[in-house]
Structure formats: structure tokens, C-alpha cells
Amino acid sequence: MNPKHKNNVGRKIALVANSTWNIYNFRLNLIQFLENHSCEVIVIAPVDEYIHYLNKAHKIKHIPLKGLRRKSKNPLHDLRLTANLANIYRKEKPDAVIHYTIKPNIYGNLAAKWCGLPSICVVTGLGYTFLHTGFSNKISQFLYKLSFKYSHKVAFENEDDKDLFVKLELAKPAQCTVINGCGIDTEYFKPKSSRHSRQAKKFLFIGRLLYDKGIVEFVQAAKRVKQKYPETEFQVLGELDEGNPSALDKDRLLNWVDKKIIRYLGTATDVRPFIQKSDVIVLTSYREGLSKVLMEGLAMGKPIVTTDTPGCRQTVDDGRNGFLVPSKNVDAVVEACEKLIELDSVDLEIMSQLSRKKAVEVFADKIVVAQYKNILSEIGLGLSKSTQTKAISDQQFK
Predict the structure, then answer these.
(1) Which CATH number does 12-183+365-397 carry?
(2) What is the pTM of this model?
């Protein structure tokens, strides 16, 4: 522990991720919570266009991480990354480091071990290598096992991922805990009106256009539903992410648009207007950590159609605030969408209210940051009392 941080006051906490985008989209609530508890926050991440979050968060020190190459499989690059992080840790001397995403979880955690620092690794999803068998899968498992033996705590966003890591002996049960995703600001994401449309007509898919996100199943279901209910509209909001091995081909997307199977909305930094104008949120993903898109849909009072898979099933009480469907099952997606189309406005409104209730009671920011506070306490880093009494919110960053 740093000598200047005595009596549980003035902790210095470092957050490490593979992009500034990750910090902006998922960690601002935790940053504000830590600052409200007199912590100095350091963000270590490659710089991208989302660095503008610093404009309204002047207390945060951002250290550019230049050596992280997300797609590189060159061990020399990863060795340099580990050394780079170790140098930063030695210079900054944080009281604890919280690592996110695969490479920081592996190499950042090893660097923290070399520097004698408490390390928390947060597994926010298993990623491409875990969803596909092969050499890369075996290597990633080996590296996780090597690194996680030194982690003070490993947090997962769903029980299934935790159980899988324990079963594969990548982490020990005593190390592991589960948090309710990244949390959602239920005041920033909230319904503008309690009155639901007369009929479910607009189905919205939000996410990167990856095969693993189930985009093909969504479009195939859209084609069939529109044949029976031509007044319905199936919308897609998200980037192509062409560097991802699971990325959708651009020509295939254009073909769907040309045939008017879907309406492609491009990308957006603020998804709220699109969610508000939709009637149902659909995510046919094969696996998630815990989908923020679905949490946003819940908070804005939308019924959900999603897969009965880790990171998705946690958001839906089947038949109450939406429907769960088997992964890769187009027939089931069609059936779920048709059930919602045929519901009357009263039943849709009930579903809407139950979605909102679940967001507030299970996934709200205050619940998730309290889980982080408990994790820090478990590794011996109690926090001072909050210096502010206002509710936790990231609206000031938006």
C-alpha cells in the first residue's frame, strides 16, 4: 500500500482496458463512484475518438497505452505490453488495478503480480476464441490459467462464465465472484412515455454486425415475419467491425437493405432515440458477458426477444417481459416476434413495465458499483465514505 494512502482514505485505483471506447461506454459509473469515495482514478487504455470523456471528467488521469494490439498474436508484442504496463504500475503505484478485456486481464494481471499490486480481473465475455474451437482457444485458456493464478479476484458478468472457468480450472472457486454487468443509469435510460404502441411493429437489433451476435438469424426471422405481417419493420443499428473474424460481409448487408428485409440505421453514440421509437429489442447473440444493449432496452421499458444463452437470459423472465429463444433457432425467433405482434396494447404495456422494473431492481448502477465496493473490501481495500450524496449517474459525461 502506498504510504500516502493511510486510514482507508485517498485510494489510487487504476482501470485498464483495450480501448477508451470501453471506458466511455461501460466504466463511467464506476469512475464516478470511486471519485465520490475520495479515490484517485487512473485510466490506462489506448486512445481513440472517445477520449472526449475527459472534457467533463478532469480529475481522471488518462495514460495512453500504446503497446496494446488487440488482434496481434505475436508473443513479442504481448511481452512488450506486459513490460509497458509494469513500468506504468511502478511509476504510478496504485493501490489496486482493475483489468478489463482479454489482453489486460492476462498481461496486465501478470504485470501487477510482478509489481506486487492487488489485481482484479473482470471477464466481460468470452470473445471469439472461446466461441470457436482450435489452437487459439487452447492458447487463450493456457494464458488465462497462467495469469489468473495470481489474481486476487476474478469477476464475471454471469454465473455460466464463472462456472466454465472453474470447470476448466482456469480460476479457483475462491477467487471468483459475479457482478450484474456494467450497470445501467436508469435515469438516463428511461421511458419517455408509459403508453405503449397499439401493436408491436418495430423490432430493433442493436450490436456489432457479427455472425456471433446472431445477425443472420435476426434477418432470416425478419424475412419470414414480414411475409405474414408486411407492416412490421426490422431495424439494425450497429457497426460492421470489419477487423473482427466474425464480421458480417458488407455486400451481404447491402443485399438485405436492397431487398428491404431490414432497415439499416448505421451507428449512433446515443441509442436512446432509436430504442424509444422501437417496440421490441431483439438480440439473437450466441453468448454475451451481460448485454448492455438489453439492459438499456429494459431500462427504457421495452419487451425483449433474446437467446437462452449466458449473458442474455439474465435479462428476461420468459413470457413476462419478453421471450427467450434457443440460440441459432430462426423458427423460435419468428414465433416469439409473432407472439408480440399479436399481443394487445394492455399486455404489451405490462411487459414494458416489467422490463423497467427488472432494470431498476437488478441492473441499476447503484447495485453494480456496490458489488465493486464489496470486491475491493474483500481484497483489503475499504473505501472512505462518499463525499457526495447525489445518485450515481453518468449523464454529466454524455
Answers:
(1) 3.40.50.2000
(2) 0.89
